[in-house]
Amino acid sequence: MDKINEFRDARDWRQFHNEKDLALSISIEAAELLELFQWKEATEAVEKHPENLKDELADVLIYCYMLADNLGLDIDQIIESKLNKNTSNYPISKSKGQKDKYTELN
Amino acid sequence: MDKINEFRDARDWRQFHNEKDLALSISIEAAELLELFQWKEATEAVEKHPENLKDELADVLIYCYMLADNLGLDIDQIIESKLNKNTSNYPISKSKGQKDKYTELN
Amino acid sequence: MDKINEFRDARDWRQFHNEKDLALSISIEAAELLELFQWKEATEAVEKHPENLKDELADVLIYCYMLADNLGLDIDQIIESKLNKNTSNYPISKSKGQKDKYTELN
Amino acid sequence: MDKINEFRDARDWRQFHNEKDLALSISIEAAELLELFQWKEATEAVEKHPENLKDELADVLIYCYMLADNLGLDIDQIIESKLNKNTSNYPISKSKGQKDKYTELN
């Protein structure tokens, strides 16, 4: 996180980095990651673009970290808190081996 | 990362988690995050949905971590490596206070 | 629609065009369109990239039409049917001048 | 197009419909369409969600049409113009039966 902030502050970019454009940037980078899998099976994409996969995934993460920083959020804490909610929505007894959304589980 | 793996392994979900569907899930969650800003200024969205913002950002991160885990990647390492590339693409002298893409910088 | 089909059939591309990859392509092209607005106000983006806007919007539409064709759907009909549903969800009396989602209207 | 405009004008929504938020809405709806294919093969998704597919595809199209209308663009014309560009980028002789991006064709 320190390195990310150092990178953007050295360029005076924080002025452009409002939360809406950061959220928008996460979506854009997520789509660039997804593009590596377009018209391909998962394994084919992973074999063909190993370096690009790292870079595009890193781009998504960098913008996620910037947004978290803007909002004063602790990454580990929001993940843990969300996993706890998911644990309630997807009890092991009902969701084991099931890929259904929790609203469709029974 | 351990908690994320524990969560998905307890539910036998790794069988569904091929890299293509994980990349697709990152895009989907990124869009749910973006939806909180739809028709709103950044500040308005941040004030209106503080809890949802945490949850949706966490969802993006959880799928990013799962994909990194599937690919055997170290999060900190790919971020650092990408920041180094960006440092070359966006030299401070040219990009300070500029929001242009590096292909448009001069 | 005929021209789109002619284009893809001349290239034997229908074999790659399963519905999942078409849906994925719509998302990717939508993000390329969105990228034209990154770090910009709407008016600034529209002035700066008039040609790119046309091209990226056309790309989204082309994949939408291909998906509709794969599914045997009539574009005008699904739009009309969806507008009718929206008319129920967003009655004029409640939603006039309101930007809230219908689940939040009261 | 007339029906779409009638729908939004009856609700005074044009004030919120700047081009940036429309582009953002296209991405959001595209992701909702994509979500129908999450963790599924194409055929499985098509069989399971025929009605939702129509609705989500229609939502993407409705926002595309609104953006085109805001920009004063003719849908058929921008599609035809883009197909002509694609015809140059993807000559039949090189791209027949190939799924590579034109920058990778040889």
Tell me what the structure shows:
- The structure is a homotetramer of 106-residue chains.
- The first copy, chain A, is an all-alpha fold and 106 residues long.
- Chain A contains 6 helices and no strands.
- Chain A has helices at residues 2-10, 19-35, 42-48, 50-71, 75-89, 92-95.
- In chain A, helix 2 packs antiparallel against helix 4 (50-71).
- The longest helix of chain A is centred in the middle third of the chain and has 22 residues, at 50-71.
- Chain A is flat and about 50 Å long.
- Chain A starts with a helix and ends in an 11-residue tail after the last helix.
- The model of chain A has no long low-confidence stretch (mean pLDDT 91).
- Chains in contact: A-B, A-C, A-D, B-C, B-D, C-D.
- At the A-B interface, helix 1, helix 2, helix 3, helix 4 and helix 5 of A face helix 1, helix 2, helix 3, helix 4 and helix 5 of B.
Detail the poorly predicted runs of chain A: none
What multimeric state do the chains show?
Answer: homotetramer
Radius of gyration of chain A: 18 Å
Major sheet description of chain A:
none
Q: What value does the average pLDDT of chain A take? A: 91
Q: Please count the helical segments of chain A.
A: 6
Find the structural class of chain A using helix and strand composition. mainly alpha
**What portion of residues of chain A belong to β-strands?**
under 5%
Distance between the termini of chain A: 41 Å
Biggest interface and residues each: A-B, 61 and 61 residues
Shape of chain A: flat
Helix content of chain A: 55-70%
Number of strands of chain A: 0
- What's the order of the H and E elements of chain A? HHHHHH
